[in-house]
Write a structure and sequence with these properties.
The complex is a heterodimer of chains A (252) and B (250). By secondary structure, chain A is α+β, with helices and mostly antiparallel strands. Chain A is 30% helix and 23% strand. The longest helix of chain A has 31 residues, at 2-32. In chain B, helix 6 (161-183) packs across helix 9. With 250 residues, chain B is an all-alpha fold. The chains are: A alpha+beta (252), B mainly alpha (250). The A-B interface holds A 1, 44, 46-48, 50-51, 55, 58-59, 62-65, 67, 71, 73, 75-77, 79-80, 129, 131-139, 210-213, 244-247, 250-252 and B 7, 51-52, 54-55, 57, 62-68, 80-82, 95-97, 99-101, 103-107, 185-194, 197, 203-204, 207.
Chain lengths: 252, 250
């Protein structure tokens, strides 16, 4: 009897030590390979970290599904946005000729791009699905400048780990890691279904991140900031989403 | 309670010997995974229900939104004012914590399920306790169930035929389908495994199936509780919590 309990004690001890050091090693490896999301704290942190890490290991180079022209939704749903500012309406009245997109942060050549410049850059077109966390979806063709092209053009420094992007709407800003920022399907979209991107759908410029939910595809983009840490932005949770109670990573 | 199993009381009353060697009705793994699954199921049901309220309409195929015709409209109030519900009010948005809780619990549920599936296979639990030894008597069993006949004492130690079939369907069909249809709604997951959603027939079909299987699982849960009550609530609960069939002799 006592032998069994001693053996049990020793094996439990070994299992516990292995467990604790296993978790410590996994945490160190995860940090090194960028598998920890900025909203990893709190009671839902463990699940969020598991989801982000598992998906990053599976999806670093995977491509969002693309569809045929016949599958494009006849009546896409724009969703509602909070009321647009006077500044937006002024820019809209001038056909967005004065719309600017600033790229700053860890770049060799921080630049303020005019809309005309962005429209002159090489584009990529893709027919993808956009879905809201509420559950609804539509399919459309988006045309835009690959974000990787813009990062290349401003000379993104090698230590950049995240791209923070902001809207003319101050309460809507997001960020993505480099797996998504350098992903060929991540584009700064300025056309949809063959026409200029309509305002309800985010015109003149919308970030399209097709491997994540719609709330990562921020409308009315005005500024990109390249950074190696998300701590200085907002509450340090990575984007506006976690500040409003939503997950930073929206691949699920 | 411990008196019957402690060596001190081993001055050879035969009942004490029986108590020491009495096998458990349910093994510790079955009991622990059962209650973990129960807790996870409720967390998933509540959070899933909250997520549905932000768009209580269901579609087939790839796409669906308020501009499309749903095959099922739950006619519930919604937590979004973009959904035409017919109600004059909008519920508070609960999707943030609901989604966090849903996915965290899904990890717990899947880990629990994996432990149970792997253990059940290697320990012979499925072979011994769940796979029907014979299909004979299914008619009689069905009649007994429809009459809500209280099972005899011999059934305290074994599952009957209908019970075995139901549990096998839940464990090997409904739970795996739940995980599959859930993953098929993840944009990240389907970018790596596009067949997971294509085989189902599209994103909205996956969402509809996820909902329909939830309905089946809730029906199973209600039936399960009714059957436990018919069979003897205290005895069955005791068996699933402590593993004992008979009340502990004092």
């Amino acid at each position: 009897m006592s032998q069994i309990s001693r053996r049990k004690l020793i094996s439990t001890g070994i299992a516990a030590t292995a467990g604790v050091s296993g978790v410590a090693i996994a945490a160190a490896l995860a940090r090194r390979h960028g598998l920890i999301p900025p909203d990893w704290k709190g009671i839902y942190g463990p699940g969020e970290t598991l989801t982000y890490a598992a998906q990053r290991l599976l999806t670093r180079h995977s491509m969002a599904r693309e569809f045929s022209r016949g599958e494009i939704s006849e009546k896409p749903f724009a969703n509602e946005v909070s009321p647009l500012s006077d500044e937006f309406h002024r820019l809209q009245a001038a056909k967005f000729e004065d719309w600017k997109m600033t790229v700053d942060g860890m770049a060799a050549r921080p630049t303020i791009f005019s809309l005309a410049m962005i429209r002159s850059f090489p584009t990529r077109s893709q027919i993808t699905m956009i879905g809201c966390e509420e559950g609804w979806t539509y399919i459309a063709e988006w045309t835009g400048v690959p974000l990787s092209y813009i990062l290349d053009r401003v000379g993104a420094l090698p230590q950049v780990r995240y791209v923070v992007y902001r809207s003319i709407q101050p309460d809507w800003w997001e960020s993505i890691d480099m797996a998504d920022a350098l992903h060929p399907q991540t584009v700064v979209a300025h056309r949809m279904n063959g026409a200029d991107l309509p305002v309800p759908f985010g015109g003149p410029l919308r970030m399209r991140v097709p491997r994540q939910l719609g709330y990562k595809s921020v409308k009315y983009i005005t500024r990109l900031t390249l950074t190696d840490s998300l701590k200085p932005f907002g509450k340090g949770l990575g984007s506006a989403a976690p500040e409003g109670g939503y997950a930073w990573y929206a691949g699920i | 309670m411990n008196a019957t199993v402690s060596p001190a009381s081993a001055n050879a009353s035969s009942s004490a010997v029986i108590a020491v060697s009495e096998p458990k009705r349910h093994s510790a793994i079955v009991r622990v995974t059962h209650w973990l699954t129960t807790a996870a199921f409720f967390a998933l049901l509540v959070s899933g229900g909250e997520i549905v309220l932000s768009h209580p309409r269901f579609y087939w195929g790839e796409t669906g939104n308020v501009n499309a015709q749903p095959w099922l409209n739950l006619h519930l109030p919604s937590s979004r004012n973009t959904v035409p519900t017919g109600y004059g009010y909008v519920l508070p948005d609960q999707n943030g914590w609901s989604r966090y809780l849903h996915f965290q619990t899904a990890w717990i549920a899947v880990a629990t399920g994996l432990l149970y599936w792997i253990w059940g296979y290697f320990a012979g639990h499925f072979r011994r306790n769940l796979v029907p030894a014979s299909w004979k008597g299914i008619g009689a069993s069905l009649v007994e169930h429809l009459r809500f006949k209280r099972p005899g004492a011999e059934q305290a130690w074994s599952y009957n035929l209908l019970q075995r079939i139901t549990y096998l369907v839940v464990i090997f069909v409904l739970f795996p389908l739940m995980i599959w249809t859930g993953l098929a709604m993840s944009y990240g997951f389907v970018s790596a495994f596009p067949l997971s959603v294509q085989l189902l027939g599209g994103h909205q079909t996956a969402r509809s199936l996820h909902f329909l299987i939830t309905v089946l699982l809730v029906l199973f849960l209600l039936l399960h509780i009714v059957m436990v009550i018919v069979a003897g609530f205290r005895a069955r609960m005791r068996a699933m919590i402590t593993g004992r069939v008979a009340p502990p002799s004092e």
